[in-house]
């Protein structure tokens, strides 16, 4: 029996425990849901309060905006300053800032001026009328006036590094947070509104910036309208004075009745009777038919749109049939309804001015015709002046030199390769410098090399450069002349002296713009314009096999042949005086006169050394002379030019040998072989080595 009872109680206990557990779990879940509901409710309440605060803030701002707009709708000029200061104080309280002001850009765009300023209690104000030069706020000035961007920072660490000067100024004023907004009125940024905090820091959300901007536009607009009204009153006063002084006629047209009130001077101008009642229709009746519709449209437009009646010129037909020119200008004014009530204006008789303009126009047409004729007649003279003064360092007025200079100007603006040909001493290097100076590469220095001044073993490294250890003695890496001349001009003087091997390498550089340094396999790309010069006949050199034909054709893109001095004897006087002026400065001497017979003799001399030889003669005479008169006897005899048979090298060898024998084998110095031949010492020595010319043993 006891066992039976126990077996019935156990299941009941288990069931009761499960129910209790389930009830507890349900209660916990219910409590959890209640907590979640309470949190959601609090969040919703907070959101609703935040929305209510935002709505309240917007309503308060709308009220402030409406009050500010209404305050300046019909304000008198004498109350403008008081109302603007009152509005700024309201903005202090609404936005909770320490300072608020209106700033304008002064004429000349070099500084700001604080026109209006309001400051909270116990905040040191920046007085109105304070001028702020751009030098103390350069970054802010450019940002506000040039870029027309807003400046808003919450802390002094926010401005960019370029605002270092501005930051120091703001620290001096005690500013911790700052806002400045440019006010754009009629595409002008002459005004800006500024606010800052001194005691604390704050952020400037976009909504606050836009609210400040709206209020600033209202204040700036009121200031500009007041200035415009004052200017209009002053203009009217000046107009009355001007009308009295200029005998101008004043008039008023009523928009309601089209009746015209006119001063006696106006009636006199139009020849209206003094007792006649005037109207717009009566006025239009005396205006020339071709101008009548234009005047009527201008008056109607001004009244309809409350715009200024722009200056209009028209003709008036007088009772005697005569015609007079009139100029009228006016302004429409609104009535109580806001629509145009009247036009006030002035009319002046400008008949004499129009007649003078017609006469002046005829004179101008005559002057233009004479000017065109004069330009055509002086075309040749202008070309002469351009050729003469466009190349001051090149002296020469002969036809041959003019043709050379014309070619120089033609080719200078291109990147074409130029081949300068001519005897030694004719000025090939000067022409190369002139071409470079007139080219688009003139901002970089011209690079030059004399191909005859260096032995073949060294000229290759000079042209293309070398790597360290490329050959014995190459202790360092060296850039060649072609690398130095990248994006510039490379002048190769005495190009005919290059060896055949170097000619092949030079051809590759000219064609591809690539080369390798000695001792390197790495190609270098350059952009170089080539100007070459030679006193040899390269065509004959090609025939003789001493110059590559392909290189000759590559260099001969634009050949310029410089005539020798003997073919342009008329240039000798100019050259002589040019050399004299050079040596006057160097030697401290003065030359006032050169005997005519000496100058004639110089012009008869053949000058085998060309201008270089002439310069040497002038220098020698300047050293010996010094009494104001320069004696310039030409050399007694010119070096004989070999005419024997043989190739060009044989002729050159015999000529050099002849000069060396005459000088006793003296190469350098005054009267030496190099001076007589017009060559540099190194060039002559290179030629002697090439031609196997050796001084005979004693």
Characterize the overall form: flat
Name the strands of the widest sheet in spatial order. 3-2-1-6-5-4
Mean pLDDT over the full residue set: 82
Termini gap: 164 Å
- The total strand number stands at 21
The class by helix and strand makeup works out as alpha+beta
Low-pLDDT runs: 379-392, 638-646
The radius of gyration is 48 Å
Determine the number of helices (DSSP H or I, runs of at least 4 residues): 23
Main β sheet profile: 6 strands, antiparallel
Q: Residue share in helices?
A: 40-55%
Question: Hey, roughly how much beta strand do the residues contain?
Answer: 15-25%
Describe the SSE topology:
Layout lengths: L1 H70 L8 H16 L3 E7 L5 E9 L11 E3 L4 H9 L4 E3 L10 H9 L4 E9 L2 E10 L8 H41 L2 E6 L4 E4 L1 H7 L7 E2 H6 L3 H17 L2 E10 L5 E12 L5 E10 L1 H27 L1 H11 L9 H14 L5 E4 L6 H11 L8 E4 L5 H9 E2 L11 E2 L1 H4 L4 E5 L6 H13 L1 E3 L6 E3 L3 E6 L3 H6 L5 H7 L2 E4 L10 H16 L8 H9 L5 H15 L23 H15 L10 H5 L3 H10 L8
Parallel strand pairs: 13-20, 13-21, 14-17, 17-20
Antiparallel strand pairs: 1-2, 1-6, 2-3, 4-5, 5-6, 7-8, 7-12, 8-9, 10-11, 11-12, 15-16, 18-19
Helix pairs in contact: 1-2, 1-5, 11-12, 18-20
Structure description:
With 698 residues, the protein is an alpha+beta fold. 50% of the residues lie in helices and 17% in strands. The protein is built from 23 helices and 21 strands. The strands form 5 sheets. Strands 3-2-1-6-5-4 form a 6-stranded antiparallel beta sheet, with helices on both faces. The relative contact order is 0.04. Residues 379-392 and 638-646 have low confidence and may be disordered.
């Amino acid at each position: 029996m006891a066992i039976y009872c126990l077996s019935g109680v156990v299941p009941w206990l288990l069931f009761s425990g499960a129910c209790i557990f389930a009830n507890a779990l349900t209660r916990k879940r219910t409590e959890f849901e209640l907590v979640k509901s309470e949190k959601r409710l609090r969040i919703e309440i907070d959101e609703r309060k935040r929305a209510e605060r935002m709505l309240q803030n917007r309503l308060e701002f709308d009220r402030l905006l409406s009050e500010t707009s209404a305050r300046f709708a019909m304000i008198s000029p004498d109350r403008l300053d008081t109302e603007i200061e009152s509005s700024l104080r309201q903005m202090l309280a609404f936005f909770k800032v320490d300072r608020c002001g209106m700033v304008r850009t002064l004429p000349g765009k070099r500084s700001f001026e604080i026109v209006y300023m309001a400051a909270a209690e116990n905040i040191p104000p920046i007085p109105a009328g304070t001028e702020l030069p751009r030098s103390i706020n350069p970054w802010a000035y450019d940002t506000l006036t040039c870029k027309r961007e807003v400046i808003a920072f919450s802390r002094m660490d926010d401005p960019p590094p370029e605002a270092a000067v501005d930051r120091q100024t703001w620290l001096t004023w005690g500013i911790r947070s700052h806002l400045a907004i440019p006010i754009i009125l009629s595409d002008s940024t002459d005004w800006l509104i500024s606010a800052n905090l001194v005691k604390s820091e704050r952020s400037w959300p976009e909504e606050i910036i836009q609210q400040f901007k709206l209020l600033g536009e209202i204040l700036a607009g009121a200031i500009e309208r007041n200035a415009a009204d004052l200017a209009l009153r002053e203009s009217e006063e000046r107009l009355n004075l001007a009308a009295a002084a200029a005998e101008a006629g004043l008039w008023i047209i009523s928009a309601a009745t089209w009746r015209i009130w006119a001063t006696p001077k106006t009636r006199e101008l139009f020849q209206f009777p003094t007792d006649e009642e005037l109207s717009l229709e009566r006025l239009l009746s005396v205006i020339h038919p071709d101008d009548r519709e234009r005047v009527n449209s201008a008056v109607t437009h001004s009244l309809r749109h409350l715009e200024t009646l722009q200056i209009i010129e028209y003709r008036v037909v007088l009772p005697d049939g005569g015609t007079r020119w009139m100029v009228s200008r006016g302004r429409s004014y609104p009535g109580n309804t806001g629509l145009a009530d009247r036009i006030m204006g002035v009319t002046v008789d400008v008949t004499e001015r129009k007649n003078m303009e017609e006469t002046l126009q005829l004179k101008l047409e005559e002057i233009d015709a004479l000017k065109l004729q004069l330009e055509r007649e002086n075309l040749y003279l202008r070309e002469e002046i351009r050729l003469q003064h466009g190349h001051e360092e090149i002296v020469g007025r002969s036809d041959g030199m003019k043709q050379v200079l014309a070619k120089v100007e033609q080719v200078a603006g291109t990147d074409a390769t130029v081949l300068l040909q001519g005897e030694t001493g004719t000025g090939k290097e000067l022409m190369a410098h002139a071409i470079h100076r007139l080219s688009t590469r003139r901002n970089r220095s011209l690079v030059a090399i004399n191909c005859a001044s260096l032995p073949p073993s060294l000229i290759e490294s000079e042209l293309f450069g070398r790597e360290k250890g490329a050959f014995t003695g190459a202790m360092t890496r060296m850039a060649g002349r072609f690398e130095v001349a990248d994006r510039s001009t490379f002048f190769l003087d005495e190009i005919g002296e290059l060896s055949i091997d170097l000619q092949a390498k030079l051809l590759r550089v000219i064609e591809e713009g690539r080369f390798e340094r000695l001792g390197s396999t790495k190609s270098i790309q350059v952009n170089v314009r080539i100007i070459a010069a030679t006193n040899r006949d390269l065509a004959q050199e090609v025939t003789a096999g001493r110059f590559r034909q392909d290189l000759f054709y590559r260099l001969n893109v634009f050949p310029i042949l410089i005539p020798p001095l003997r073919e342009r004897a008329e240039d000798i006087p100019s050259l002589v005086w040019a050399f004299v002026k050079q040596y006057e400065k160097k030697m401290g001497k003065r030359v006032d006169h050169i005997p005519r017979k000496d100058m004639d003799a110089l012009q008869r001399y053949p000058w085998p050394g060309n201008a270089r030889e002439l310069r040497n003669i002038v220098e020698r005479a300047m050293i010996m002379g010094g009494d104001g008169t320069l004696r310039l006897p030409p050399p007694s005899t010119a070096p004989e030019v070999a005419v024997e048979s043989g190739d060009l090298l044989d002729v050159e060898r015999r000529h050099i040998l002849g000069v060396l024998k005459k000088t006793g084998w003296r190469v350098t110095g005054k009267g030496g072989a190099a001076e007589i031949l017009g060559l540099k010492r190194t060039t002559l020595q290179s030629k002697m080595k090439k031609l196997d010319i050796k001084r005979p043993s004693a």
